[in-house]
Specification:
By secondary structure, the protein is mainly beta. The chain has one domain (2-25, 33-198): Beta Barrel (Porin). The protein is built from one helix and ten strands. It has an eight-stranded antiparallel β-barrel. Strand 3 and strand 4 (82-91) form a beta hairpin. The longest helix is centred in the N-terminal third of the chain and has 24 residues, at 2-25.
Length: 200
């Protein structure tokens, strides 16, 4: 399973490099802004995956946890269809024990560095988002026996972005590469929806 994931990631990254090279060689329109700065916020649905995710002895199965996501982004525009989008986000992750109000909390400060590739379609101006996310744990609340929470994670992000003038909305999925816990095979999986506003 892990091998298949890495093969898919390498294929996507190869396509991204080819597309990026073509876009960077094309001159940007004179009216295009060279960069944008904005705010974004939204919500996510996070869960734990891995071989130990269903064997934590928590008195119930784990399900997704709904959390808050928010921060800032910078869009470096190389052409009308290609940009690099670094972000700084605070993101609540973890899981919930089914049938209870108990959350397993693993919140992170995250720095995604995403390639934004326009799909060349006129309706809603959709773009592909793909790239890594560098994550640092800020809050950790896991049950005893799961081990200490690792202080950092590396995420692989893929999603779609839609632009409406100065507003944008995007949906993405992030797969954690590193284990959440030092002694368990547990990774973060997160679906996120964000709405942003560019003020520059």
């Amino acid at each position: 399973m892990r091998f298949k994931v890495w093969v898919m990631v390498l294929l996507l990254m190869s396509l991204t490099v080819v597309q990026a090279s073509a876009e960077m060689m094309a001159p940007a329109p004179a009216s295009a802004s060279s960069f944008e700065i904005g705010l974004e916020s939204g919500m996510n649905f996070s869960y734990l995956l891995g071989s130990d995710a269903s064997n934590l002895n928590l008195g119930g199965a784990t399900s997704s946890r709904m959390g808050f996501v928010g921060g800032v982004y910078l869009s470096l525009n190389f052409s009308s269809n290609f940009s690099i989008r670094p972000e700084a986000l605070y993101e609540q992750k973890g899981a919930q024990i089914s049938g209870t109000q108990t959350n397993l909390e693993t919140d992170y400060f995250e720095v995604p560095v995403l390639a934004k590739i326009g799909l060349g379609l006129p309706f809603l101006n959709p773009s592909l988002l793909i790239g890594p996310s560098f994550d640092w744990n800020t809050i950790a609340s896991l049950p005893s026996g799961t081990g200490a929470v690792n202080t950092n994670d590396l995420g692989l992000v893929a999603g779609l972005d839609f632009d409406f003038s100065k507003f944008c909305i995007n949906a993405r999925y992030e797969l954690g590469v590193n284990n959440v816990s030092s002694s368990k095979n547990l990774q973060n999986g997160t679906f996120t929806i964000l709405m942003g506003y560019s003020f520059m």
